[in-house]
Design brief:
323 residues, mainly alpha, ADP-ribosylglycohydrolase fold, two-stranded parallel sheet
């Protein structure tokens, strides 16, 4: 039975959440030898490792990273027509699970060396800057220097809600600037939103890459950004290397930041996974085997493939952690 756009929208939201949770126990492993050691005990299914191997923070298997939690807060805000700024502050701010000494937004640099991993979730740079800006009463609460994957990892709910409507990109930008008021972050995230919207509206499409590139090159495109041309060049880098495996993409394109959450590299790595796989479970496993910021890449991969035909894979992943 063919999926409706509503079905695919649900698939995108659930796919992103499940993929984030699947990668969470192996999030942020940057040491190749350690990654190889951890994978050796898990293959061929590295997802949902029962004990966290994350060298920075540890959460129970099945819980979300800070990326997945941001998507959840956005989803809840959209469903209840809530104040997103207030909800982010209440979820990630003082007195929450994220309010740990190492995560203190006012922690001075050069203090006592942190003992890692911490027992609990990680509050990253944009969230700490967001909290400081809210505390200072600033109207623009987003961090103007942070350009990482947070925006892309949390867009599934807003793209799903507004897919096919002219204000979709406007809503994406509005959401992103709450915590990341950075032009490159916004431009890359809106390109990612175009890919996800296309899958939600149309399902699988081998021509999606050309469709999105044509949109970005259209002088009459919705919500144009000054950096769209730069983003187009970044997408062309991925296009030119689609024949390469994920682990070959980094040296082939020179994506020094492909494994960390910094943009554009992290987006390029995730997009490569979307365009070179047609099964959600294998795509997530493949990006996990590359190490680094596995969860941020996995969440976008999960959203795009979840919006296509992978309901069975999502159910399988859910069963892995629930049972």
């Amino acid at each position: 039975m063919a999926l409706s756009a509503a079905d695919r929208a649900i698939g995108a939201i659930v796919g992103a959440a499940v993929a984030d949770a699947a990668a969470q126990p192996m999030h942020w492993i940057y040491n190749p030898d350690r990654l190889k050691e951890v994978l050796s005990d898990l293959e061929p299914c590295p997802e949902f490792r029962s004990e966290s191997a994350n060298p920075f923070y540890r959460r129970t298997t099945g819980e979300q990273t800070c990326y997945g939690d941001q998507a959840y807060v956005l989803l809840e805000s959209l469903s209840q027509c809530g104040d997103l700024t207030k909800r982010f502050y209440e979820f990630f701010g003082p007195g929450t699970a994220y309010d740990l000494p190492l995560n203190d937004p006012y922690r001075e640099k050069g203090g006592p060396k942190a003992i890692l991993p911490i027992d609990g979730p990680w509050r990253n740079a944009s969230l700490k800057a967001f909290i400081r800006n809210v505390d200072a009463g600033k109207e623009e609460t987003g961090c103007d220097v942070d350009c990482q994957m947070d925006g892309i990892t949390k867009i599934a709910p807003v793209v799903s809600m507004f897919a096919g409507r002219p204000q979709m990109l406007e809503k994406v930008e509005e959401v992103i600037r709450v915590t990341q008021n950075n032009d490159m972050c916004v431009a890359v995230t809106m390109a990612a939103a175009r890919f996800l919207e296309h899958f939600i509206l149309n399902g699988p499409d081998p021509d999606v890459l050309e469709t999105v590139l044509n949109q970005l090159n259209d002088p009459k495109r919705q919500n144009p950004q000054d950096l769209d041309r730069a983003v187009t060049a970044q997408i062309h880098q991925v296009k030119d290397n689609l024949s390469k495996a994920s682990h070959q993409l980094i040296p082939a394109v020179g994506l020094n930041h492909c494994l960390c959450p910094a943009l554009p590299g992290a987006f390029q790595g995730a997009l490569h996974g979307v365009l070179t796989h047609n099964q959600l479970d294998e795509a997530v496993r493949d990006t996990m085997r590359c190490g680094g910021c596995t969860a941020s890449r996995a969440s976008f991969i999960g959203a795009c493939l979840g919006a296509q035909v992978q309901a069975a894979a999502i159910e399988y992943f859910c069963n892995r952690v629930l049972y």
